[in-house]
Amino acid sequence: MSRPQDTPSLAGASLEAVSIRVSKHINTRDIDAWRDQRVRLSYLRRDGRTRVTAPGEDLLPGDHVVMVGDPASIRETAPLVGEILDHNLEDDRSDLAFERIVVSNPDVVSRSVCELNVTKRFGAVITRVRRGDLDLLARDDLDLQLGDHVAVVVPTDELDDIAEWLGDSERRVAEVDGMAFGIGLVLGLLLGIVSFPLPGGQGFQLGAASGPLIVGMLLGALRRTGPLVWTLPAAANLTIRQIGLMLFLAALGLNAGPQFASLLGSPDGWRAALLAAVMVVVCCVLQAVGAKFIGLSSARAAGGIAGSSASPPFFKPPMPASPTSVLRPPTRPCSPSRSSSRSCSCRSSPPSCERRRLGLWLPPTSSSNCADTSATRPCGCPARPSSSRAPPRDAHRSTGSVPSRPRPSRSCAYAARIMELGPP
Length: 424
Fold this sequence. Notes:
Layout: E1 16-22, E2 26-27, H1 32-35, E3 39-46, E4 49-52, E5 58-59, E6 64-69, H2 71-81, E7 82-84, E8 96-102, H3 113-116, H4 118-122, E9 125-131, E10 134-137, E11 149-155, H5 159-166, H6 170-174, H7 178-193, E12 195-197, E13 203-205, H8 207-222, E14 224-225, E15 228-229, H9 234-265, H10 269-294, H11 298-309, H12 323-327, H13 351-357, H14 395-399, H15 411-421
Antiparallel strand pairs: 1-6, 1-7, 2-5, 3-4, 3-6, 8-11, 9-10, 9-11, 12-13, 14-15
Helix pairs in contact: 7-8, 9-10, 10-11
C-alpha cells in the first residue's frame, strides 16, 4: 500500500514558456498535461494572425502555440504536440499584450481562475500567478489573493479594461480591511472566554491565544463571506506576522522570565530542567515517527515540531470567583499606635473585635475575646466601655448626652463583612 506523500514544496520552482510548431491535428483536451492542469496554452498564431488559445480548441498542423509550465512537464508534452521553435511568440506584441497586473479588487479576491472566466469577458487568458517569491501556474482551481501579480495575455484593446477590473493598485494592496480584521479578532476573543464543561464539575477555556488562532484558521479556510474578505495581502500578512512573533516572544519572556530564573535557582531547578528536556525529546521523537509514517517531508515535520513546542496553552482553566473575596472589604495596612510599641496582629483579630471595630455593641459573653490591655488588644480594636453590658436605651435622658455610634463610611462593604463573620 502506498503511503500518502506530502505536497511538494514550490520554493525554488520555476516556470518556462516555449513556442511550438504543431505537427498534427490534435485537440487541447487530448493533451494529458493540459487536461491535468500541468501546462497552459496562451498564444496561437494561425494564418498570420495571433490570438488567445481557447479552451478545447483544435490545433491544426502549422499552428504556432506558446506552452507554459514547469520544465519537466514541458519536456514531456512538447514532443507530443510538435517541434520547439527557436523564437518566442511572446515577443510579438502587435495583436496581443502580455502584462503582469496586481490583484487589488476585493470582488475578484478568493475567486478561482475558472470563476473569473477572463476568456469570455475579455478574450484573455491567465497563465501565471506571482505570489510572494513563488511563480504559480494559473490552474483553473487556483484562488487569487490580494497582492497577486497575474500574467495576462489579452488583446491590446482590452488591456485597460481587464487592468481596471483586477484593480492594479499597489496602494489598495497595502491597506488592511479593518472591518474583517476586527470581526475576526472579536470572534476569536469571544470563543476564548467561553467555558466548556468537563465531567466532575470542571471546565476549560481556550483563552485569548487559542481562541483567535482557531477562528483565524476557520476564516482563512472560508477565504471570504459575501463582501468580507478574510485573507490579508501578502505584504501586510508578513509584516503583521513578524510584529506578532516579536510581541509574543517579548510577552513570554516578561511573564515566564522571573519564574524561570527563580525555578533554576531553587533546589529543584535541575529536576525541572531534566523533566522538561525529557518531555521535549519524547514529543519530538513521537512527532518525527508520525511524520515519517504519514509521508511528510522533513521540512514540514520540523515545522510541526517547532510549532507544537512553542504553541500557547490550548486549555485554560477558568478562574472561579469566590463570593467572600468579592464582598470582603479592603484590608488596611496594620500599623501600631504611636504611643505604643506593641506588635500588630490584625489578621488574627477575633470576630468579636471585628464586630467592635465595625461599631457594634457586643453581648457580655463576647466582650472577653477582646482584652482591654494595650499589650494584648489587636490592632484597630477600640477599648471596650467600662461596663460590659450595653447602656440602656434611655441612658441619655438622665445624663443629657446622646451616645455617639461610629458610622461606617462604606456601608455595603461593612455589611458584607458582618455577613461573613456570622452571628456572635
